[in-house]
Design a protein that fits this description.
The protein is of the alpha+beta class. 32% of the residues lie in helices and 21% in strands. It binds zinc ion (2 copies). The site of one zinc ion has 8 residues, from loops.
Length: 121
């Protein structure tokens, strides 16, 4: 699979049983729908293992908003995280997956972790 944003090759990275595609150039991450949910619930070190791309390349890639799903070529839908509206990402309208720029996954899980910590107190 090629990166939907910069067309570079994507590599498979594994965290537990979960396989994620990571761009070898901009560091963007492609999650299948269940993968993102599972990883948010099981975040121990996930960001260190998976989200290792260049964060400045991720910022540049974040400016690219109009691109197509690598599976079905539909225009990706813009979404923002319900808990963290400053994080915007795109998902395939046919449910093939969600693309996060380098650094966004770390941002997403850190806040989730902090929220859990606060709730426990
Ligand atoms: Zn890329
Ligand atoms: Zn698709």
């Amino acid at each position: 699979m090629d990166c939907p944003k910069c067309s570079a090759e994507m590599e498979h990275v594994f965290y537990n049983q979960i396989e994620v595609d990571r761009c070898t150039s901009c560091g963007g991450l492609w999650f299948q729908p269940d993968e993102l949910r599972d990883l948010r619930n099981d975040i121990w070190m996930a960001d260190y293992i998976i989200d290792t791309g260049d964060k400045s390349a991720g910022k540049k890639a974040d400016a690219i908003k109009d691109y197509h799903c690598p599976m079905c070529n539909e225009s990706m839908l813009h979404e923002s995280d319900p808990e963290q509206p400053h994080i915007t990402y795109e998902s395939c309208p046919n449910g093939h997956g969600t693309y996060l720029d380098s650094g966004e996954f770390t941002d997403l899980v850190k806040k989730t972790f902090w929220d859990k910590f606060k709730r426990k107190k």
